[in-house]
Amino acid sequence: MAKQFSKCIERYKLPEFAPEWGAILRGIEKESLRVSPQGRISLSSHPTALGSALTNPYITTDFSEALLEFITPVFPDINECLKTLENIHRYTVQNLDNSEILWASSMPCPLENTEIPIAQYGCSNIGKLKTLYRHGLHHRYGSVMQTISGIHYNFSMPEEFWDHYKSIIGYSGSNQSFRTQKYLHLIRNFHRYSWLLIYLFGASPAACKCFAEGREHNLQQFDANSLYLPNATCLRMGNLGYRSDAQTSLFVCYNDLETYVDCLHQAMHTPYPEYEAIGHQLNGNYLQINTNLLQLENEFYSTIRPKRNAQTGERPLDALVNEGIEYVEIRALDLDPFAPLGISAEQIRFLDTFLLHCLLAESPECNEQEFFEVANNISKVVEQGRDPRLMLDLKSEPKGLKEWSLEILEELSYSAGLLDEIHGEANYSASLNAQLVKVNNPELTPSGQILKIMQESNLSFFEFSMQQSTSHHKTLTRNGLDQKAIMHMNTIADKSHTQQRENEVSDKINFDEFLLRWNRA
């Protein structure tokens, strides 16, 4: 699918694509459950050796004390990014207690609501707020859903790109407004085509039976302990995963930043009857941050988010309004259970190719009809993505998934050609060709491979996940960290404990007043 460089720059109406523009900046956030050697969720507190979950920049927790989140700094080099992620993994596994291992799958191990320890962040006001937010999630959606793991991929173009691209486009406004406008442009295209990522990289076609207990679902029984759908790709993104009935009617528009911010701001200040029924407090204890449709901006479940690094205590939406969009966060990715780190260099190259195309290609403004059409396409691919007869919707007209996938991959060959040229290699086209194979044979997708292994080896979802988790643990404990990396991680962990203690003594108001002010903002 390789394209001549001249054809690639012509496709995007560019006079050139300078080498420094290809220094794409990326960071990875990867979640993993801590589990016992028997595959049960860890009930122990976040290991002290890993530092403070509130302030360690590399290792924190998500919903649960047992749900680790690894965060890399931003890198222009893929191998450096993955090496740092690997170091974080290796440091973690050598500091886990009780022979614990990291769960390799996005869908969780066998568990019950009553045994999931909610993450704790100390007694500072911001720490208490983070824990209260998670209590709110528990009351609104149940804890089981919150233990699903995934990969968040943070993407931005290098600084050198923006001035030149602004000049090429002929934009006369500020650099900040241009960058924000173009990232929204990227986000709109990403929404249109994100179902393709779910098809290609979805790796959650099955789950432990207990995951759906007490909840309505249409899953089929795979064996005595597993549920699945024969053509599913990514149940994590479906009705049993990151879906909220309360948010299904919420239309969030990405045509301009003001509209996007207003949509979420309104949702954070609109009372919601079901959440009002839960209540704000019970016997003097807070149950949730507030009873509105969204407690915080982060409660809005989306496959992609515009992001800006906020100052301490600054709300995410305020940071966007004050300084504009800095990068985008991709949230549609399952853990790859076949990769020790949950993601591979080949996948990263495809993501960069996909996102660069979304940025450079035409991107019409979105409307409400298209927004919900996109949501419907994602739902179809989640549950039926490997059905060769599956039809999606494009501007209210039926379109076959395979036909549309091939068209998109053909378009992506132009952005792959740009990146191949400036890196002096064919790795980006190779990553594209690897996805083409999956489009032509759905059984070669991760979801297809998982079900094939489960069926041919007579494994339950739990047994498959344990097999992968144990294998990756052995890989990560072999050839451990060098002394320099250990000392660096130890220093970061120690500093994070100190920083948390400093936060806890620096608060000037009590939590009741802090929460009142937070909800008024």
Features:
three-stranded antiparallel β-sheet; globular; 46% helix; Creatine Kinase, Chain A, domain 2; seven-stranded antiparallel β-sheet; 17 helices; alpha+beta; 521 residues
Summed up, the domain count is 1
Q: What is the global morphology?
A: globular
The top-level CATH class is Alpha Beta
Output the structural class.
alpha+beta
Quick synopsis:
The chain is of the alpha+beta class and 521 residues long.
Set down the secondary structure blueprint.
Blueprint: H1 5-11, E1 25-35, E2 59-61, E3 67-71, H2 78-93, E4 101-102, H3 125-141, H4 143-146, E5 151-156, H5 159-169, H6 175-201, E6 206-208, E7 220-223, E8 226-228, H7 257-268, H8 273-278, E9 281-282, E10 285-286, E11 304-307, H9 316-323, E12 327-333, H10 345-360, H11 368-384, E13 391-394, E14 397-400, H12 401-423, H13 427-440, H14 446-456, H15 461-477, H16 483-506, H17 511-520
